[in-house]
Amino acid sequence: MFSNKWKLISPDQAVEWVTKTYEKIGNGLPWIFDWDGTLMRGDVGTQAAWGLLRSGLVSPDRVPAEWKPSILRDMNFPDFERMRGEQAIKMGYQEIFEMETTLMAGFPCDVAREIVDKVLEMALGMGNLRRLEPMGTLLRAQAKRAYVVSGSPKLSVYSVARDYGMTEDRVFATELNVVDGVFGESHGPHGIVWAEQKRKVLEMENIPEVYFVAGDSTGDWDMMQLSKGVVWGVLWPRKGNPWATLREQLETSLHESLLPLPTRAGIYLADNPDKVGPRYWVVEIHETHQLA
After folding, report:
1. Could you give the C-alpha distances from 232 to 216, 223, 251, in angstroms and in order?
2. CB neighbourhood size of 20 (10 A)
3. How many of the other CB atoms lie within 10 Å of CB of 158?
4. Which of 73, 192, 248, 270 is the 20 to 30 Å CA partner of 235?
5. Cβ contact 47:226 at 8 Å
6. pLDDT of residue 139
7. What is the Cα–Cα distance from 85 to 93, expressed in whole angstroms?
8. What is the reported pLDDT for 242?
9. Is 36 helix (H, G, I), strand (E, B) or coil?
10. Where are the beta strands (DSSP E) in the chain?
11. H/E segment holding residue 113
């Protein structure tokens, strides 16, 4: 249908094309969506961590010693984000990420849920989190055959995913074990749902093939390999991102006929000339890429 060059399409055209293509080649396969950076700008896990820490209920031994409860209780989100970034340089970004997944250990589930629901509602109202389109339109339309796969805490992801028609059993995200209605200290059977673990979780859930995968980072790359139809990559500028970007991953992995990637903001579509992998690639560029 298309040549091996990227074709610029509108958001409405993208939704229509992906949906009609599913009718032709989808064969009933599931749709897979990452969350942070794909369906929302911002990170629900970090927003939830801020809310939990402000509650004063997080055990002090779960955070760096310099994060005093008296300071955290009144800290606004920009200041928390700045402090978090400084701490990540000291202890590592992966370590900060893992720490945030365990903050609710010891919380009664209903207490943690109430805190997280309130702080994420506030974050959306303040613009700290922003819903992204047309991805949200796609998820709402495909909710009954879709799964969300995210490294963020499941409590946080489901708090916002349910607004799209998602049920809790179709959200695979990082979670803690629950004992007598209280979050425990160890991770659940899915572990920390990041990078290759995202693909492993889908395979654990007997989902070895999918029609559509949408993601925004190299942490989504492994599960993108399960797509038999469309991979939709959401490309953001680096802006302090400590990991390789999805753009960099694509630049080293895609067929040479698809390079260079588009640089201007917009949604682009191309056939995949490789004989393996998805039939089509979509890239959604949120900000015009500045070439080095």
Report:
1. 9, 12, 15
2. 10
3. 24
4. 192
5. no
6. 98
7. 8
8. 57
9. strand
10. 7-9, 31-33, 40-41, 130-131, 146-153, 171-174, 176-179, 182-187, 210-215, 227-235, 266-271, 280-285
11. helix 109-126
Q: Are 156 and 47 in contact (CB under 8 A)?
A: yes
Residue 104: closest CA among 174, 36, 43: 174
Q: Which two tokens mark 51? A: 């809310």
The single residue listed with the structure tokens 């809310």 is 51
CB 215 within 8 A of CB 236: no
Backbone angles phi, psi at 169, to 5 degrees: -70, -10
Peptide bond into 30 cis (omega under 30): no
- Which amino acid would we find at residue 37? G
Q: What is the DSSP letter of 262?
A: P
**pTM of the complete model beyond 0.85:** yes
d(C-alpha 18, C-alpha 2), whole Å: 14
Question: Tokens 């055959």 appear where?
Answer: 145
**Tokens 């979670």 sit at which residue?**
175
Burial label, 94 (beta-carbon count in 10 A; 0-12, 13-18, 19+): middle
- DSSP state for residue 58 in the 8-state scheme: S
Cis peptide before 108 (omega within 30 of 0): no
Is 63 within 8 Å of 99 (Cβ atoms)? yes
Q: Give pLDDT < 70 ranges for the chain.
A: 1-4, 239-244, 275, 289-292
Residue 18 token pair: 């992906």
**What three-state secondary structure class fits 241?**
coil
Gap between the Cα atoms of 204 and 207, Å rounded: 7
Which domains does the chain possess? 7-42+130-285 (3.40.50.1000), 44-126 (no CATH)
